[in-house]
Amino acid sequence: MSSLKVLIWAVVLFSIFLFIFLFGSLPQFQGTILHKVRQASVNFVIKSSQSADRRISKGKIGKFVHQSWHRCGHYLGWLIPVGYLALISCCIQLFFQDVYPEMIHIGNFQRYLVVPVITALPYLATVLTIFTSPPSISHSNITTETKKFRYDNIIFFEDSPHCRTCHLPKPARSKHCSSCQGCVGGFDHHCVFLNMCIGHQNYRYFFLFLVSNVTLLSYGFLACASVLRGRLLVLLDKTPISDKSTWKQYLKLLRAVCLRSKESNNATVLTLICLLLSLVTIIFTSVHVYYIYLGVTTNEADKWEDIQCAVSEGTIYGYMDPGLDFNDITNAHNSVSIILQRVNSEGRVSETEYERRDPHDTRDFTYNRELTQEERKEIQDKNLRFVKILDYSMINNIYDNGFFNNLKERLRL
Ligand SMILES: [Zn+2]
Ligand SMILES: [Zn+2]
């Protein structure tokens, strides 16, 4: 197999792997082959690395890595952002050295505005994200942080215990980050590419970081590819091509163009790096746009996945308007906001165990939480009906206010 084919296969397989890894756990793929492949591969990687560690060092390597990461992981974590910025800087340097001089056809607007802005934006976004990193929740800001979001009592509970490390209450939508060693308000995720937490405060700059990288890398790919195409066209003018096996001759000429000189080599490498990285950044950005559409953060997406599992297991109950036909899913859409999950001392209870009992009979069960005063009043005033949640779409996510409002809220526009 030629090296070009190997490279194409590598890009395709890497993209498929990344897609499964990033999207496979989404609620929409629950129970599908995508979800099963992701679960199986994650379990395989964890189990095989643990068993290899047990065989080689009786678990000492794993323990050492865990302890070292705990001690200096945050400082080692800076290697990834520094490495990524160094790679991008090298690519930009190669671009201006070997590709840009051949872009003679571009106008002044592109030359003096588009190219400088596209080049500078990822650096600016990185600096802005780093300097607006969310502060850890402390005694001084806990009151402000608690006021920022309401508790939905579905994935964030008013009566949840304090953070075991910070010994402070957990505001809605916050999470403790073990890498940053603190609770973060409006927590989205801990970003390894920037070695910091992304929260309510710096999400807009993180989003700018994603978009600016997509723009830079896509522009780089298109510019490099068009320069290589220009060189190919020049060569084609000089080379007669027969009707038969045309694509093979094209590939031969393309290879000749790519390997002709050091500049061509650099332009080819740059094209492939930009293609691969732009695919990765486009996937990351698409995931975030999708989460904004759903009205969830990255952290919450996992929590909603658990809720969806509980719905399919039949362990979720709630209160809804008695006038609604809860068997009609389209009618019952977003109709339940007071949610209770039935649990026993051993954890979740299976569907069959439920079906044997009346849902109002709580003798052998407890719920995952107590109803609040306001909820009791709402149930009484509106005479709400206690029902089993049949479909995930019946549950109302109070943080989802429609795509454009979610976008405005996340980007703080
Ligand atoms: Zn904490
Ligand atoms: Zn963090």
TrEMBL record:
<keyword id="KW-0812">Transmembrane</keyword>
<protein>
    <recommendedName>
        <fullName>Palmitoyltransferase</fullName>
        <ecNumber>2.3.1.225</ecNumber>
    </recommendedName>
</protein>
<dbReference type="GO" id="GO:0005794">
    <property type="term" value="C:Golgi apparatus"/>
</dbReference>
<dbReference type="Pfam" id="PF01529">
    <property type="entry name" value="DHHC"/>
</dbReference>
<feature type="domain" description="Palmitoyltransferase DHHC">
    <location>
        <begin position="160"/>
        <end position="304"/>
    </location>
</feature>
<dbReference type="GO" id="GO:0005783">
    <property type="term" value="C:endoplasmic reticulum"/>
</dbReference>
<comment type="similarity">
    <text>Belongs to the DHHC palmitoyltransferase family.</text>
</comment>
<dbReference type="GO" id="GO:0019706">
    <property type="term" value="F:protein-cysteine S-palmitoyltransferase activity"/>
</dbReference>
<dbReference type="InterPro" id="IPR039859">
    <property type="entry name" value="PFA4/ZDH16/20/ERF2-like"/>
</dbReference>
<keyword id="KW-0564">Palmitate</keyword>
<feature type="transmembrane region" description="Helical">
    <location>
        <begin position="205"/>
        <end position="228"/>
    </location>
</feature>
<feature type="transmembrane region" description="Helical">
    <location>
        <begin position="6"/>
        <end position="26"/>
    </location>
</feature>
<feature type="transmembrane region" description="Helical">
    <location>
        <begin position="269"/>
        <end position="293"/>
    </location>
</feature>
<dbReference type="GO" id="GO:0016020">
    <property type="term" value="C:membrane"/>
</dbReference>
<keyword id="KW-1133">Transmembrane helix</keyword>
<feature type="transmembrane region" description="Helical">
    <location>
        <begin position="75"/>
        <end position="96"/>
    </location>
</feature>
<feature type="transmembrane region" description="Helical">
    <location>
        <begin position="112"/>
        <end position="131"/>
    </location>
</feature>
<keyword id="KW-0808">Transferase</keyword>
<dbReference type="GO" id="GO:0006612">
    <property type="term" value="P:protein targeting to membrane"/>
</dbReference>
<keyword id="KW-0472">Membrane</keyword>
<keyword id="KW-0449">Lipoprotein</keyword>
<dbReference type="InterPro" id="IPR001594">
    <property type="entry name" value="Palmitoyltrfase_DHHC"/>
</dbReference>
<keyword id="KW-0012">Acyltransferase</keyword>
